[in-house]
Amino acid sequence: MTGGFARSATGRVVLRVDELEKGLLRSLAEQVLAFVSPDDSGPERDPLAILIGIESDATKPDDPALARLFPDAYREDDEAASDFRRFTERSLRETKMAHAQAVLDGLGRSGEKIVLSEQETASWLGFLNDARLALGTRIELSDDNQDELADLPEEDPRSGMFQVYDYLTYLQDSLVQLLFEALG
User: Fold this and answer.
1) Does the pTM of the predicted model rise above 0.85?
2) Fewest C-beta atoms under 10 Å: which of 62, 66, 92, 169?
């Protein structure tokens, strides 16, 4: 497994990954990209609303993982939450898509050593967060069951998902620590 994110001698952010890790990260980025992409199909979609970033029929997603990635801004006021979602959800989706695409682009042009620009570093941080939130929601991770999930037998499908979640947590933590050190 990788040693996480590190700084190069020139101060650039670097991640060294083997082919397995690279394939996993590529697959996750593709899945996040597809998962958060807005559905612009159908005759009822207003092209002008799409162009300016308004969702005419924005509602809280039924999928718990999507609802975790796009939560209501106002929990006690459904009308305000709906209005806020109409004007912001498309932009949030596009940002999450851009993060996942930046990860895919970086993985595509790199070998085992991935060197990130400042903007790419921010995209990786956003992508890692989104992937972790979606996975954590899928396996119903909570403060109360983290040890239980970590001890699942390998036959349990959640075991592999938890291991991927744990790997992404490790990567995200190493990147956050690296960025935090730069502030000091």
Assistant:
1) yes
2) 62
